[in-house]
Write a structure and sequence with these properties.
Shape: elongated
Radius of gyration: 29 Å
Distance between the termini: 72 Å
Number of domains: 2
Helix content: 55-70%
Order of helices and strands: HHHHHHHHEHHEEHEEEHE
Number of strands: 7
Structural class: alpha+beta
Strand content: 5-15%
Oligomer: single chain
Number of helices: 12
Length: 377
């Protein structure tokens, strides 16, 4: 096998091409998601996959079609284009409108320079129908994967027959060629279905495992493991670059009394709703701030690039929001407040434990002196 010689069956080559296209896509999206997560962006994996997928597929369609533009073989990449439409419509989390699809089709016809050819418009109409047929079966998926597969293959076969019938007339193809291309389209799309579903299943399992490792199941905020990892990174950054770093530790006051008086379900309700209220508040303050559940009723917020002076206003706002919050469980109102300790990274802090210990001491000062207060030092 050299640059000038390729002794591989075209069908096998196409399979490797398809798998290569999909593998490169997963590689790119995985790297981009990890990069965004490292920059502490609020990453929605499905959205990143969708945006990258559309751009990637559009580039591939344009490049492949330009390669055969103006030649008698303008139909050779049609099955790949069918794959592209199905990939975007069935496997990506997108909400594309009809007019957007129309613009893409016009751009495609423009690239081919076939505005004056009636069969091009008929072919485009079939593509248009394929997209929305795939969207329809995606929105009406069954719990039985075999039924999903049968819907998927049936739609693929119907539209493959329609498209290749148009191409037969336009390019004067033989019945044998058309039959082979329809069969190969079925084979192509079956591989796509099996491969992508397998990858998505693995990705979902990994995503669930990652979530379980880093998030608290009750409150849905980051857990102690996640706190240790992020606090270590932020402390090192503050040391190396002399960046401000403020730590807020707080407890829910008299939480044992809540459990003893109203029951443990009420205690769970309080934990979940305190976390929810603070999370919503942090989104308005700074989307890069996160709440960590670091103990039973203990929570922590890392104010990276905040001094105590700039963080104190937000800390007070959070404490006031909890104090004035409406907590009602099983027909009973529950009064909630928090005690907090706040401190800032100092040059004398040799390690992160020094900073944490000072914040913890401030927290217990608040608890020993009447609770429902914030101690900053």
């Amino acid at each position: 096998m050299t640059w000038s010689e390729w002794f591989v069956n075209p069908a096998l080559t196409s399979v490797f091409f398809l798998l290569g296209v999909l593998t490169l896509y997963w590689f790119m999206t995985s790297k981009l998601i990890k990069y965004l997560e490292k920059r502490k962006k609020n990453v929605r994996s499905s959205r990143v996959q969708a945006v990258v997928g559309v751009i990637y597929i559009m580039i591939l369609i344009i490049v492949t079609q330009l390669a055969v533009k103006g030649t008698p073989n303008g139909w050779v990449f049609v099955n790949f284009q069918v794959f592209a439409v199905i990939f975007v419509s069935y496997f990506l989390d997108l909400n594309i409108h009809a007019w957007q699809i129309g613009l893409l089709i016009l751009a495609y016809i423009g690239i081919n320079g076939t505005f004056a050819i009636g069969l091009s418009w008929l072919f485009a109409a079939v593509f248009f129908g394929l997209y929305f047929a795939m969207v329809f079966i995606k929105e009406h998926r069954h719990t039985n994967e075999w039924r999903n597969f049968s819907d998927y293959t049936l739609v693929n076969l119907v539209f493959a027959v329609a498209m290749w019938s148009v191409l037969k007339v336009r390019f004067n193809l033989g019945f044998g060629e058309v039959a082979w291309q329809v069969l190969f389209s079925f084979f192509f799309m079956t591989i796509t279905f099996v491969y992508i579903n397998s990858v998505l299943a693995g990705a979902n399992t990994l995503e669930q495992l990652t979530y379980t490792t880093n998030f608290d199941d009750l409150t849905h905020v980051r857990n102690y493991y996640s706190f240790k990892k992020e606090f270590s990174q932020d402390f090192t950054s503050a040391q190396e670059h002399q960046e401000p770093l403020t730590l807020m530790l707080f407890d829910i006051d008299h939480f044992k009394h809540v459990n003893d008086t109203y029951g443990h379900l009420a205690g769970d309700y309080v934990l979940a709703n305190v976390a929810k209220l603070i999370t919503q508040r942090l989104k308005t303050i700074d989307p890069d701030l996160h709440l960590f559940r670091t103990g039973g009723e203990e929570f922590t917020i890392i104010f990276k690039n905040y001094t105590t002076a700039t963080a104190k206003t937000h800390v007070t706002e959070i404490a006031d929001a909890i104090r004035n919050g409406h907590f009602r469980h099983d027909g009973q109102d529950i009064t909630i407040s928090i005690s907090a300790g706040v401190t800032q990274f100092q040059d004398v802090d040799d390690n992160q434990l020094d900073l944490y210990r000072r914040a913890d001491q401030n927290l217990y000062y608040s608890k020993r002196h009447g609770r429902d207060q914030v101690t900053v030092n």
